[in-house]
Specification:
With 433 residues, this protein is an alpha+beta fold. It has 3 domains: 21-30 and 49-91 and 336-431, Type II secretion system, protein E, N-terminal domain (GMP Synthetase, Chain A, domain 3); 104-228, no CATH class; 237-326, no CATH class. It is built from 16 helices and 15 strands. It has helices at 21-24, 36-39, 79-82, 88-91, 232-238, 244-258, 262-269, 274-287, 296-302, 308-323, 326-332, 338-348, 363-367, 371-377, 400-408, 420-431; strands at 107-108, 113-117, 122-126, 137-139, 150-152, 158-161, 164-165, 175-182, 187-193, 201-206, 215-219, 223-228, 380-385, 388-393, 413-417. The strands form 4 sheets. The protein has an 8-stranded antiparallel sheet. A 3-stranded mixed sheet has the order 13-14-15. Helix 7 (262-269) crosses helix 10. It starts with 20 loop residues before the first helix and ends with a helix.
């Protein structure tokens, strides 16, 4: 089906770590537990209001929603909060492109070979007419490899081209480095040309300049996931949302939080002396060398210093600290607003940003997505635009989200980004009846 054209628990912020040259040389900082009680207060994540239960009480909340009649059994509990995300998506910094486009000399004026990405294979064929994104299909000369002479864009994962088609001659020369992943399994780092606004797909310069098909056209319906290959912090810095000193301050704070030990958290939560905890652990490992690999938490529970419940809470708190992202921390420290962070997140993941206060979901859009599916995935169908269902989400970084929508929706779709607070309010308003 579709992806998007260019341009906790409610919803957890997933914002990558930006590491500048200054940060790389920065030290770890003194006290890892400094301001621990204010860094992540359990009350900080609570929001007022409850998501309306679904029909017959089958959906009591949006954190753990059971499937309906087995319809959505593959959408696992806690999907949005628990889905593992490839950290390389957020930490990779890729240098700007230095590739020269050479648009004029590469213009395709006649029929030429193309490489078609099909469901299970690649097919090299010859066009019967120059490629055009407006045709929504490619026409081929008959060959021994395939008896098909025409493929609609909806049947293709990608199209490899030798030169720039004539209909694309007006695109800009500026390029942005992105990673594009398709439903067919192709993942490519590409240079996306500016100035293109095609309804059908995305034209790129292939990142791997090894074969003769150095240009790629991805039909929108084949794109599962795409994102700028640079950290969100860099995007926010470039746009002037934050300054370098502010970013460095938050990065150092984040590093301290990720180095907080379980013993430090237990000492704070159980009102114990840190030195006493450290001594208990040292004695246990000294007296019984075989227990050297025993987790500190188990030793403290066995010794009676803490309870199982206190340990469980401490582990949960430690995980929350380690998952804290730059964007979330910038908001908590009031350096930026929620809208600014999610606007930048939309830029990174190449999606439009919407203000839901100004939008009224259409009945046609609502009818295109089952209510239970919308609640399960924390989504809000908004409208039908150019044949695509516009769907608001606060988690554009999840590559699994379009996979589920492609499976359950019977139409093409486009994800747009909204803030978690606005999305929650809009879902309550839409589905409370």
């Amino acid at each position: 089906m579709a992806s998007d054209p260019p341009d906790k628990k409610d919803t957890e912020f997933i914002v990558e770590d930006y590491v500048s040259p200054t940060q790389k040389s920065a030290g770890q900082g003194a006290n890892a537990l400094e301001d621990l009680t204010t860094v992540l207060s359990p009350e900080a994540d609570k929001q007022k209001g409850q998501i309306p239960p679904s029909v017959d009480g089958q959906y009591e909340d949006l954190t753990s929603l059971p499937a309906v009649d087995g319809q959505y059994e593959d959408l696992t509990e806690g999907l949005l909060a628990d889905t593992p995300i490839d950290e390389s998506l957020f930490d990779e910094i890729i240098a700007g492109s230095t590739v020269e486009a050479g648009l004029e000399s590469d213009l395709a004026l006649f029929a030429e070979p193309v490489l078609l990405g099909l469901a299970n294979r690649e097919l090299e064929a010859t066009l019967t007419a120059p490629f055009s994104p407006f045709d929504r299909a490619v026409s081929l000369q008959p060959s021994a490899e395939s008896s098909y002479t025409k493929f609609d864009f909806s049947e293709l994962d990608y199209i490899g081209l030798i030169s720039i088609p004539k209909d694309l001659a007006g695109i800009g020369r500026d390029m942005v480095t992105e990673v594009v992943e398709t439903f067919g399994g192709k993942s490519e780092k590409v240079e996306v040309y500016s100035g293109q606004d095609f309804d059908t797909g995305l034209f790129c310069l292939a990142g791997s300049q090894t074969g003769r098909f150095k240009y790629l056209y991805f039909p929108y319906d084949s794109i599962k996931f795409r994102y700028q290959a640079r950290p969100l912090g860099e995007i926010m810095l470039e746009s002037g949302l934050v300054t370098e000193p502010v970013l460095q301050e938050v990065l150092l704070r984040q590093k301290k939080m990720r180095n907080v030990t379980l013993g430090q958290i237990l000492a704070k939560q159980a009102n114990l002396d840190q030195a006493t905890i450290d001594a208990e652990l040292r004695n246990a490992w000294r007296d019984n060398p075989d227990s050297a690999k025993t987790l500190a938490g188990k030793i403290l529970v066995d010794s009676g210093m803490v309870t199982e419940k206190q340990l469980e809470d401490a582990v949960k708190f430690q995980n929350q600290l380690r998952k804290k992202r730059i964007g979330e921390m910038l908001i908590e420290l009031k350096h930026v607003s929620e809208e600014q962070v999610y606007g930048a997140l939309a830029v990174k993941f190449r999606k439009s940003f919407v203000q839901l206060q100004a939008v009224s979901p259409s009945e046609e859009a609502s009818a295109s997505m089952p209510r239970e599916l919308a609640l399960k995935l924390r989504l809000l169908p908004l409208s039908i635009d150019r044949g695509r269902l516009l769907v608001a989400t606060a988690t554009p970084e999840m590559p699994e989200l379009p996979v589920h929508l492609r499976k359950y929706l019977r139409c093409s779709f486009e994800l747009v980004v909204a803030t978690p607070s606005q999305l929650k309010t809009a879902i309550i308003k839409k589905y409370s009846n």
